[in-house]
Amino acid sequence: MFATIRRYEGIDRDRTDELVKNVGENLLPRLSEMPGFSGYYLIEAGNGVMSSVNFFDTSAHADESTRVAANWVRDEKLEKLLPNPPRITGGEVIVHKTNGVPALV
User: Fold this and answer.
1) Quick count: other Cβ atoms within 10 Å of Cβ 61?
2) 13-62 pLDDT, tens per residue?
3) With contact defined as beta carbons under 8 Å apart, do 42 and 23 qualify?
4) pTM, whole model, 2 decimals?
5) Within 13 Å, how many C-alpha atoms sit on residue 6's CB side?
6) Could you state, in order of their start, the residue ranges of all structural domains in the chain?
7) Which fold has domain 2-104?
């Protein structure tokens, strides 16, 4: 399993509801239809910062999700709402826990 974390800074705090709605209506359908999709989380960190975490079966699928997210920002004309490019971290998930059982991958 591979994870991609995107940290968005400088988000207009008065427009976070708009962003959350757009994520649910436009980004999530694109990501969830991708091959290897395992999950997506959007985190409100406060002070104009949001982070997203998504999980895919392969590195290639996770990398493709970054392209899909960038296209979503462009297609939905969200450049003013998301004025700074996200800081992206990604890689193989080497330890995770599901159903209360720790697992090494």
Assistant:
1) 19
2) 888 888 999 999 999 999 999 999 999 999 999 889 999 999 999 999 99
3) yes
4) 0.83
5) 20
6) 2-104
7) Alpha-Beta Plaits (3.30.70)
